[in-house]
Amino acid sequence: MSEKSTQLSPEKALLEAKGKNYKLPIYDGTLGPDVIDVRSLSGAGTFTYDPGFVSTAACESKITFIDGENGILLYRGYPISELAAHSDYMEVCYLLMNGELPNQTEKDTFIATIKNHTMVHDQMATFFKGFRRDAHPMAIMVGVVGALSAFYHDSLDIKNPEHREIAAFRLVAKMPTIAAMCYNYSIGLPFMFPLNRLSYAGNFIHMMFDTPCDEPREPNPVIEKAMDRIFMLHADHEQNASTSTVRMAGSSGANPFACIAAGIAALWGPAHGGANEAVVNMLEDIGDVSNIPKYVARAKDKDDDFRLMGFGHRVYKNYDPRAKVMRETCHEVLKELGNGNDRLFETALELERIALEDEYFIAKKLYPNVDFYSGIILRAIGIPSNMFTVIFALSRCVGWISHWNEMIGDPQLRIARPRQLYTGPVQREYVPITKR
Ligand code: ACO
User: Fold this and answer.
1) Residue that is last in its domain, among 72, 104, 121
2) Which helix (H) or strand (E) holds 9?
3) Is the C or the N end of the chain the one with fewer CB within 10 Å?
């Protein structure tokens, strides 16, 4: 992969629209496609039109790079496969937040700081009681994370980089505690306090599965590593729907905890973070490998809105590099737990094999994405499917807050305010109700 060196390209993009000519600047990123700067068009009475932001770079960022054609994902320049093999979630959090990998002292200090913030204010517990016992844990999480803004609003000056950093520490540290509280509340068990002698992933497993009646169990190292990898692989993914939502909400200067709650809401949908829950439901529906051709046929049928969940991606037109790591982790976890013949995993492997050989999926470049295997791992660990997206939110929080911080720290920040192609009625006169 060659690295480009300049920012402003000597070339210009020429646009002719309705008899007017425009010379638009072009920027080169260090990697990836060039970007045409269309900002001058608004003053000239013309907008660009790009629903779903398919061809639009909404911001400049130094955090994460994806090359979808070649299946490459870099966090601050480091390939995800190398990070998954040699690093861990705490190191990745440091990297995303600070731009560089930590040395040992920096890492130890970072972990100690995170551990300092793992507890939530005791009053937070009362928020949970306002939710129906059977509420979806994502519904609870949106509300409770948004409510953090009530605890840390007056003391937070978003223009102050140190305040922004403390907000990031708080979020990364408290997300596992809140996620486990969402789970325990939904099954009627008491909330568990964090156990700071454990690792980040180990502590989450402890808060999910230990109870106050028994001594805390030592987390199984294979499960702990798998959980840490799930966190790592979901930590960031450049300007996806939820991250863009956090940026959009944050561009008005809103409280960061409220912005993260907005990101959680965007993540919830089945086209985004809700997909791993949908994958497990789909594999359960398929039931047996003999039914796969029927479901593949449905996915290809234009008159059927069924899609193969966990397949396809807006950016990846090749195998999602995270799905490869997930597949390996899936093997490790199922072997450790003694269910190497897991029916769902067998169905997933066979579905992947059939789809990857099918002309429809080849032509549309539809490959398994990160969510295709993550749900199987989580299910094997004993996590119910309605918690899958909560775990995604927990993992992605560091990405969201790193993007928010990058945006707020940018002196050129402007409120995000897209325009539109208006196709409604032209101006008309109001008609009183008696005359309609
Ligand atoms: N199964 C069957 N066909 C599919 C699938 C699928 N999973 N995904 C896309 N297609 C088809 C579409 O029908 C469309 O066909 P057409 O060109 O004939 O109309 C074509 O491929 C392009 O699909 P779009 O929906 O236009 O692609 P887009 O980039 O907008 O959507 C998305 C990407 C939402 C991820 C889509 O592939 C999808 O719905 N996948 C299933 C849900 C999923 O796994 N989401 C997780 C994404 S990863 C993440 O958020 C962590």
Assistant:
1) 72
2) strand 8-17
3) C
Q: Decide if 433 is inside a domain.
A: no
End-to-end CA distance of the chain: 66
Best CA proximity match to 417, nearest among 58, 61, 36, 44: 58
Q: Work out the mean pLDDT of the chain and round it to a whole number.
A: 93
Q: Are 351 and 286 in contact (CB under 8 A)?
A: yes
Write b or e for each residue in 217-253: b if 16 or more Cβ atoms lie within 10 A of its Cβ, otherwise e. Answer: eebbeebbbbbbbbbbbbbbbbbbbbbbbbbbbbbee
In the residue annotation, 272 being an active-site residue is answered as yes
Selected catalytic residue, list 117, 121, 272, 331 = 272
CATH number, domain with residue 53: 2.20.28.60
Give the model's pLDDT for residue 343.
86
Last residue of a domain, one of 30, 47, 72: 72
State the catalytic residue, choosing from 206, 313, 320, 403: 313
206 carries an active-site annotation: no
Q: What angle do CA 347, 349, 353 make, to 5 degrees?
A: 115
CATH number of domain containing 375: 1.10.580.10
Which residue segment(s) compose the domain that 152 sits in?
A: 78-415
What is the pLDDT at residue 202?
98
One domain for residues 292 and 364: yes
Note if 304 is an active site residue: no
Tell whether 334 is covered by a domain. yes
In the chain, the number of structural domains is 2
Residues 115 and 36 in one domain: no
Average pLDDT per run of 10 along the chain, which is 436 residues long? 60 90 94 94 89 95 95 97 97 98 98 97 90 91 94 85 96 98 92 96 97 92 96 97 98 96 95 86 93 95 93 89 92 85 86 93 92 90 92 97 97 93 97 96
